[in-house]
Amino acid sequence: MAQHNEFGKKAEELAVEYVKKQGYKILTRNFRFQKAEIDIIAEKDNIIAVIEVKARSTDAFMLPQEAVTKTKIRSIVSAANHYLEEFNKHNEVRFDIISVLPDEKGNLSIEHITDAFEAFDAN
After folding, report:
1. Is residue 100 a contact partner of residue 108, using CB atoms and an 8 Å limit?
2. Angle at 18 (CA atoms; ends 88, 55), nearest 5 degrees
3. Residue 28: what pLDDT?
4. What's the pLDDT score for residue 32?
5. Per-residue model confidence as pLDDT tens digits over 33-63
6. Which residue in 6, 8, 77 sits closest to 36, CA to CA?
7. What are phi and psi of 5, to 5 degrees?
8. What is the spatial distance between Cα 65 and Cα 116, in angstroms, rounded to a whole number?
9. In order of start, what are the domains of the chain with their CATH numbers?
10. Alpha-carbon Rg for the chain in angstroms
């Protein structure tokens, strides 16, 4: 497996542990619909958080969350709508991004951006 794929998997594992510690219940991971994938779908306080995990080894060129384009948002929203229909969920939905970057010492730091975008941001 390529090194960047391993880094991405490690970042996603860290994100899952982080949201669990914040009191979220993980509903599913790596939910796929057509060509779209949602990294984490979690629930807390009756709100479903659709979470995109973005990791970078450096922020020299862009912050991880800046890699979530309008095209990516459209695919996440489409997959989220399918998930809600498939599992008959009627909760409020929020779209979050968890950004993972190494700090100065090489430790991975997590930034949880709640309400990072809304469904209509994709238009």
Report:
1. yes
2. 95
3. 97
4. 96
5. 999 999 999 999 999 999 999 987 766 566 6
6. 77
7. -70, -40
8. 9
9. 3-122 (3.40.1350.10)
10. 14
Query: pLDDT class for 68, splitting at 50, 70, 90?
Result: confident
Q: What pTM did the predictor assign?
A: 0.88
Mean pLDDT value of segment 8-18: 92
CA–CA separation, 118 vs 59, rounded Å?
24
Annotate 17-79 with DSSP letters as a single string.
HHHHHTTPEEEEEEEEETTEEEEEEEEETTEEEEEEEEE-S--SS--GGGG--HHHHHHHHHH
Indicate the SS3 state at residue 13.
Answer: helix
Geometric angle at alpha carbon 118, from 114 and 122, rounded to 5° = 135
Residue carrying the six token digits 């730091």: 109
Write out the two tokens for 94: 């929020």
